[in-house]
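Appendix C: a fully annotated inverse folding record. The material below is reproduced so that readers can follow the format used throughout the book. The structure is listed first as tokens, followed by the designed sequence.
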């Protein structure tokens, strides 16, 4: 899915104009870029976490010549998927149901039924045999 297709899908779901959705997406992505470039971590509950990881310097080889190269240390963006996202990807047919929007005076809540009380079992006391001493 491309950015254009994603914007069209969100616009259709939210009934907003594509222009408004595109400006919101641009603002979100710019904010994520700014936060990551300053070293911050962004956590979106249920979706995942964006962070920055540091890669150590290492030795590599040029594939064509086989020459040994020194690869410098660098920072890279990293995304860790949240549990809800992992579940949806693993089981695509099991989508979570969206909660229906609450309407103020549409329906009154049904009165709660009183829980039936169970009769407590009768306690029987065992009589102890007592012996009389003379």
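Designed amino acids, in order:
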């Amino acid at each position: 899915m491309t950015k254009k297709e994603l914007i069209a899908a969100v616009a259709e779901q939210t009934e907003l104009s594509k222009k408004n959705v595109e400006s919101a997406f641009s603002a979100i992505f710019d904010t994520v870029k700014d936060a990551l470039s300053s070293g911050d971590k962004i956590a979106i509950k249920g979706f995942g976490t964006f962070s920055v990881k540091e890669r150590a310097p290492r030795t590599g080889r040029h594939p064509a010549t086989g020459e040994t190269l020194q690869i410098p240390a660098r920072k890279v963006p990293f995304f860790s998927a949240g549990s809800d996202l992992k579940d949806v990807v693993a089981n695509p047919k099991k989508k979570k149901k969206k909660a229906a929007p609450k309407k103020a005076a549409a329906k009154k809540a049904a009165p709660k039924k009183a829980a039936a009380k169970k009769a407590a079992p009768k306690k029987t006391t065992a009589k102890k045999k007592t012996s009389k001493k003379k």
